[in-house]
Structure formats: structure tokens, C-alpha cells
Amino acid sequence: MKIFRFRGGIHPEGNKDPTACHPIARLPLPQRLYIPLQQHIGEPAAPEVEVGDHVLKGQRLARHQGSVSAPVHAPTSGRVIAIGDHMAPHPSGLPVQTITLEPDGEERWIETEPAVDPFALTRAEVSARVRDAGIVGLGGAAFPAAVKLDAGNRHPIDTLILNGGECEPYLTCDDRLMREGAGYVVEGVRLIANGLGAKRTVIAIEDNKPEALEAMRAAAAAHPGIHVLRVPSRYPMGSEKQLVTTVTGREIPAGKLSAEIGVSVHNVGTALAVCRAVRFGKPLVSRVVTVGGGAIRNPRNVVVPIGTPAGDLIDFCGGFTEPPTRVLMGGPMMGQVLPGLEAPVVKGTSGIIALTAAEAHAASERACLHCGRCVDVCPVGLVPLELAARVRAGRIDDAAELGMGDCLSCGCCAYVCPAHLPLAHLFNYAKGEIAARREAQRKAEETRKLAEARRLRLAAEAAAKAARRPARPAETVETES
Amino acid sequence: MTMILSVVAVAALGLALGWLLGLASQWLGATTDPVVERIAEALPGSQCGQCGFAGCAQAAAAVAAGDAPVTLCPPGGRAVAEKLAQILGATFDPGNLPDRGPLLARVRTDACIGCSRCIKSCPTDAILGATKQLHVVLEEACIGCGACAEVCPTGGIDLEGIPVTLRNWRWHKPGVGHA
């Protein structure tokens, strides 16, 4: 298969070996599980249990609300001891509605839907099972997977891409999953392809994972419709837009979805979860998390029940060798700062990475040299130095005009910047500001409509009153005569 | 001779063009000040009166005439102030604006007597309720103008800032400190 090249990109040091060489370990049940009701993009789930309830493993704790949402399930059997605020695994550290579960240690499963021949199911049934299992994109974005499957009904999908890029340094959870569960992953991707009606399936794996490539090739050998494609290791290969370009040569237009050009991209972990849900009726209650970084004593990949506090996971991996400079959720390029060790692992948590001072490369900022390296590496062809100057000066609208909205937040520009400008941070700020303005604009328009509606209503009432007034004397005249 | 000719020619030209301009101003002239119109468009249009003017149109006229600052509109906040400054070509100092952010009205359930005065005062019809029934504010429609709080006989309506949640949290500007 021909491989295409996307623009820009970088080659950061992989740092994957310390975790990639160990098999996936299983975390013993923690004391408490904190299961946020918002672990996905869209509306939060609505709780269905009450404090004091005993729940079984896999029992639904909260149902999805609205079209873009996902339910959450009990990761183990136990008792609900609280429903309320707990620190969100989000850089703000703000509280989020969370169900606190005290495991009873029995791991008793709820009766799940009977195992079926998954290839005998219709597309709608596959999508319904995926939705009911609470599956979201496990690559990090956490977009409800069923919504992506249903997009196949609106746009014809010709190519399904399974994203085994895992281009972020340190992260190896997808690598280990492909090595250890290749059969399930391939079955999952076949089910997704069925659900989407995709004609061809491409499993794209970066060439820094030869063992995973080998395992996936062996597992996919029996299925001629599936191509396992070796793609070069270049960050951000695992970004949807860049991967689509690499595999198909097509570019997703600005502001459009990949489905609109006939491509759907899913993560390796999502495929495995789909296989478990559709074949065995098991909801998404755990995931593989890479615990890595120089400050972790025994870095490795761990299967973790959703809701496990990050601190428990780090303790299981031997704790810290030195106080970390920064602890991240996800990889070091696009990951977010973990607000505290009590924040839980959620569906979208691909890694907990504790960086030492030497790894964090904290350096003080200097003036922009206008060297243009950020322009060379930007995978979407923006001019980061120009954008940064405008955002600094508060000219957010000008930055938006220069394409701020197309920024992936991949951090390539900040990575290569010799002046250590906080480019990624500036752009995150600018995008937030653009969103806030759009929201204010929307509200202003709503307000105008409401005020106008009120004006019309008052005018109509006044007119009705005026119409009644002369009628009355006329009536009295009639009755008198 | 040439001098007279050129004087006559230039005078005729001046008269003709002047006449054309006069006609154009009658046929194509703007009846209202376009700047006032653009400002009125940028204002929320809820006629809440918090700026001290009777309505948004009067406020727009005052801003255009320079009698009121661009920061006059509390519900519009920074976004509107910036837009007004842009229309007027004026510089805008966000430091002048009270940094309280948008507000929401909230009816205190223990104080509401169901008099329905706030319902009538609300410029966006954001309050629901009936006589002798508890009233409630629709957050989506409330612009935080405070008209309801002014008419409430029991002082039972509070104006509160919109709480920061995961949905409306934004990154702070680097180097400016945490927001």
C-alpha cells in the first residue's frame, strides 16, 4: 500500500522501552473507586443508583442523556457510599459529579447479555450494544463510539482506520494491547467495519512497534479485507487528521469530520472494548494505562478499573523514586497536568506519566527569534509565531482569522521553539477565549430574540386592550336603546 | 479671454457637481447615523436599562456621541465593550471594567411570596411562575441585568456569578497568573 506524507511533525525521543518490555499487569482492587459521571465529550450521565445501594460488577450506575453521551457502569461489585463532588481528572482540578464505590472484593458480575454470534447482528444492533456498554474513544478524546458508528448512516464510509500510531512518547498501552490481545482487537475492528459498512480496513501501526506489527499481521492474516500498514514514526502520526492523510492521501478540510470524506478512525483500545461488548455483552469497566516517566520506580502497563485514584496506581508501580516535577494524564506532548493524586483514572486516561526535572525540560522563556522552526513543524500549516504575537497582544479575532481554530494543540511548535515560548499554552488560552466569545455571541443573539418576542407580546396585549375598549361603550349604547 | 473661459468652466463644473452632491444627499443620504446603528446591533438589545439610558437605542446614540463610555453595558461585558471600541476606533482599557463577569439572578425559595412583579420586569422573559406560586429563573435566558432584584418586595432575588465548571473553564493567559 502506498503511504502518503503529512506536513511538518517532529521526532521526539520515544522513551517507550521501560514500559513496552513488561507484560500488562493487573491492579488489585483499590479501597475506593471514584467514577465521574462525565468521562466523555457530551452530556454527563444521569445517576440511576442511590447512596447505600449494593451494585454488581458491570451494573449500570448512570444512563446516557441526549444524543452525544455515554452511560457509566460499576467497575466492580460493592456499595455506593457517595454521589457528589470529587476532583475531576482535568487540569483545572474542579469538582465533578462522581459516584464513590466501596468494593466488596467479590468481583461478582451482573448477568450480562448472552454471548451471540456478533457477525449475525445488524448495524443498528452493533451500535446499540456499543452505546449501552458505555464505550468512548479510548485514545484520549473520549468521544462516544456509538455516535461515530452511527455517522456511517449519514456519510458513506469507505475506509476504516484502526489507529495504532501511539505517537506520544512514553505511552505503550496500545502497543502492549496489540501484542497481547491481537485476536480480540482484530475481531473488534471487524465488528466496527461491519457497523460502519466500510469496504476496506487499514490497521496503521508506527514502525517503532515491530512486535505489535507482527502480532497484528498474524491475527489479521485470515481476513483479506484487513491491511496491516506500517507507517513511519513521526509525531503526531496518531492524530486523526494526520493518520487519514498518511493512509489515504486525503486531507480532512478545516472544520469537517473525517466521516465527511468517507473515513472513520478508531483507537486500538476502543476496538478491544467493542469486541468485549458486542461478543460478550460486557460493558467498559476497565482499561490499560501506561504508568511511566523517570520518577516512577517500576514503570509498566496496568489494567485498571475505571475510577481508581491515580495515587493507588502509582503506589502499585512502586511509587516515586524522586519527587516528580510534573505528573501528567496522557503523554508528555498533549497530556494534561494531573491536578492531584486523588483524581481518578477515567475511560480516556491512556497514561499517568511522572516526569523528573531533567525530563520536564523546564526552561525560562526568551524573546522570539523569528527562526521559523515552529512553521516548519506545524502539521496543519499554521504560522505559530504570528499567532502567538497576536494572542499575546490580545488580538484574539486576528488570531482566529489566521486559523487558530485549526490548531491541533499537538505541541510540536512549543517542542522545537529555541526561545521556549509557551506556544501550546498560548493557543489553548486563545481557543478557550474564542469559544467564550462564540458563547457570548450566541447568548447575545438569544437575548435579542427574547427581547423582541417580549416587545411583540406586549404590543399585542396592548393592541388587544385597545380593541376591547371602544367595544364596551358601543355595547352599552346597544343595550340602552 | 482664456482667463474668462477657464473661470466660467470651473464655476460651471463646481455648480454641476454641487448640484449632483445635493441630489445624492437627498436620494441616497442616511436617515440615521450608521455608527449608531452598528453600535445598537452590538448591544444585547434587551432594553434592561442598567446603563442608565431608557433602552439600547438611546445608549447606542450616547456611545456614538461620546457621552457614554464603551464599557457602559454590564450584561454585554468585555466582549461588547471590545466590539464597541472597535466600531468607534477607540482604545479600550479592560481595566476600567468591573471584573465580575456575567451574573445570573436566583430566586431564594424561602423569600419568594409569588407576587409576580419580577416576571413583569424581566426584559427577556426569563422568570417563570404564577401568582402565589414559587418563581424560578431560567438560567439560559437570564442576562443578569438585575431588574427583577430591584422590584422584588422581599429582596428575595440574588445576583450571583456563574460558577466555573468543567464546561466553561478556560485556560488562563500564560504569564498573567491563574484565573
UniProtKB/TrEMBL annotation, chain A:
One GO term under biological process is: electron transport chain
Position of the signal peptide: none
**Positions bound to [4Fe-4S] cluster 2:** C378, C407, C410, C413
MF terms per GO, please?
4 iron, 4 sulfur cluster binding; electron transfer activity; metal ion binding
Source superkingdom = Bacteria
Q: How is the cofactor bound, in the record's words?
A: Binds 2 [4Fe-4S] clusters per subunit.
Query: Where can this protein be found?
Result: Cell inner membrane
- 4Fe-4S ferredoxin-type domain residues are 358-388
Cofactors that this protein relies on: [4Fe-4S] cluster
Q: Its membrane topology, per UniProt?
A: Peripheral membrane protein
Q: Which Pfam families match?
A: Complex1_51K (PF01512), Fer4_7 (PF12838), RnfC_N (PF13375), SLBB (PF10531)
Q: Which family does it belong to?
A: Belongs to the 4Fe4S bacterial-type ferredoxin family. RnfC subfamily.
This chain belongs to the protein called Ion-translocating oxidoreductase complex subunit C
Classification lineage: Bacteria, Pseudomonadati, Pseudomonadota, Betaproteobacteria, Rhodocyclales
UniProtKB/TrEMBL annotation, chain B:
The species is: Thauera aminoaromatica S2
The entry marks the following residues as binding [4Fe-4S] cluster 1, namely: C48, C51, C56, C73
Q: 4Fe-4S domain spans which residues?
A: 31-90
Q: Cite the NCBIfam families for this sequence.
A: rnfB (TIGR01944)
Pfam entry (one): Fer4_21
Assembly notes: The complex is composed of six subunits: RnfA, RnfB, RnfC, RnfD, RnfE and RnfG.
Protein name per its UniProtKB record: Ion-translocating oxidoreductase complex subunit B
Q: How is the cofactor bound?
A: Binds 3 [4Fe-4S] clusters.
Record's keyword terms, sorted: 4Fe-4S, Cell inner membrane, Cell membrane, Electron transport, Iron, Iron-sulfur, Membrane, Metal-binding, Repeat, Translocase, Transport
Q: What residue spans carry the region label Hydrophobic?
A: 1-25
